[in-house]
Specification:
Number of strands: 12
Structural class: alpha+beta
Shape: elongated
Distance between the termini: 150 Å
Oligomer: single chain
Strand order of the largest sheet: 3-2-1-4-5
Order of helices and strands: HHHHHHEEEHEHHEHHHEEEEEEEHH
Radius of gyration: 46 Å
Number of helices: 14
Length: about 450
């Protein structure tokens, strides 16, 4: 009440007063008033009775200005606000309300907590407006398509080493799968995919981005262009051998389901690991075994059609041989192979000109010619080639003296040759005179 004769009403209440007065004046029936105000005729009769007795104030609800009967006590509000400031300051209202109930036994709704935060002037995380994009319908069957990608993020928030989350999400159900690795590359991708198919089976297709791990950026040769053969990355080659279709996305938004999963995990999973004090990749992967089923149970959806399109792994297939980095090398004449800036000696006698080097996900390496596995060892130091010492042999060189009748003697190079001969005859006598004078 703003004054003695002034009543503050909302627009809806003013509209209700107008209709009630028309019903009191018999200009419309009570049933018509109930239809206009979307109320029952019994409620209309009750309001008319209050208006006749109290005036226009009769349309105002009796609970206005009074505390709610199910309002939470003030000490609970104070405790929830204090915990939010001290422990959950970077949590959103939804996630914070869940943790308050799970850890602190304070049961409040997210909207109640959001209202309290607004009233206290405490900022909280909100979603940013996203640009409108065309919606793609989910696949109908579980296992029909799996989206896969890697997410580089400070998952351990500086408490441990930097790591990458290799994540999977089923397109039909939204069930996640993943594992932490030190980097995003071919070996982590193959190892995580091996773990996925051992648990769920082979999916029909995998949706990937155009990262160099998944799509080869190598230019095709002239022979490949003529044969219409596309260059494949090691990972794409392995999936092709397993009979799994590879679909490449043209933009991050095209595989929005896995991107949204990463965004959710970067908010929820990080804080879950923080509350548990997780500091290593091993501890984080162990926690995923518990966290992912709980997440799938809460946020997963039922597929549009029943049925699991995952295929069991064929019997007799060697996954380690397929899910590995295969590199073809030439075998040298001395039975050595150069691989990854290292030199290896093949110990088995083979007639192979080329052999295949397989780098396994467990860190081991195998050399193979066709189906035969070859023994080898790494050459840590190349042998120094010893050159024979050269011994100098002194040999007397015979001086060739041409005969007197030789053409060289007959040929006179200079017309003053006779004068030269005379000087040569006199020269010994002059040398002798000089020696006697010096003595």
């Amino acid at each position: 009440m703003a004054g003695k004769d002034t009543v503050v009403m909302s627009q809806e209440e003013l509209r209700r007063v107008n209709i009630i007065h028309k019903a009191i004046d018999k200009r419309i029936s009570q049933i018509e008033a109930a239809d206009i105000l979307s109320l029952s005729d019994r409620q209309i009769r009750r309001i008319i009775k209050h208006v006749k007795k109290e005036g226009d104030e009769g349309v105002i609800h009796r609970s206005r200005g009074k505390p709610s009967h199910n309002a939470l006590p003030k000490h609970i509000r104070r405790r929830a606000i204090a915990l939010y400031k001290s422990t959950y300051d970077d949590f959103g209202p939804t996630f914070a309300s869940e943790k308050l109930f799970e850890r602190d036994k304070i049961k409040i709704s997210r909207e109640t907590l959001r209202t309290w935060l607004k009233e206290e002037g405490i900022p909280y995380a909100t979603r940013k407006m996203r640009p409108h994009r065309s919606w793609r319908e989910r696949k109908h069957y579980y296992g029909q398509m799996v989206q896969m990608d890697g997410s580089e993020h400070p998952w351990l928030e500086g408490r441990g080493p930097e790591c990458v989350f290799m994540g999977y999400i089923d397109d039909a159900t939204g069930k996640p799968f993943g594992k932490f690795y030190e980097y995003e590359g071919t070996i982590p991708a193959m190892d995580s995919f091996k773990r996925y198919i051992e648990k769920h089976g082979l999916p029909q297709s995998v949706y990937l981005d155009k990262h160099s791990t998944y799509k080869s950026n190598k230019k095709p040769s002239i022979e490949d262009e003529l044969n219409n053969v596309e260059a494949l990355s090691q990972f794409a080659r392995a999936l092709k051998e397993l009979g799994v279709d590879v679909i490449y996305a043209d933009s991050p938004q095209a595989k929005g389901r896995i991107e949204r999963l990463f965004k959710t995990f970067q908010h929820r999973l990080i804080r879950e690991m923080r509350l548990r004090g997780i500091k290593t990749i091993e501890e984080a992967n162990k926690f995923l075994d518990y966290y992912l089923p709980v997440y799938a149970k809460r946020f997963g959806v039922a597929p549009a059609k029943e049925g699991d399109l995952h295929r069991p792994i064929p019997k007799g297939i060697d996954l380690d041989r397929i899910l590995c980095v295969q590199t073809k090398h030439s075998l040298r004449n001395d039975f050595t192979v150069a691989h990854d800036k290292k030199l290896y000696q093949v110990l088995d006698n083979t007639r192979a000109k080329e052999l295949m080097v397989e780098e396994r996900v467990d860190g081991s390496m195998i050399m193979r010619y066709k189906d035969a596995v070859l023994k080898f060892k790494e050459i840590t130091a190349r042998p120094v080639k010893k050159e024979p010492k050269k011994t100098y042999e002194f040999r007397l060189k015979r001086v060739y003296i041409p005969p007197k009748d030789h053409l060289w003697r007959r040929f006179k190079i200079n017309p003053q040759y006779q004068q030269y001969q005379q000087k040569e005859k006199v020269a010994p006598k002059e040398k002798g005179l000089l020696l006697t004078l010096q003595t």
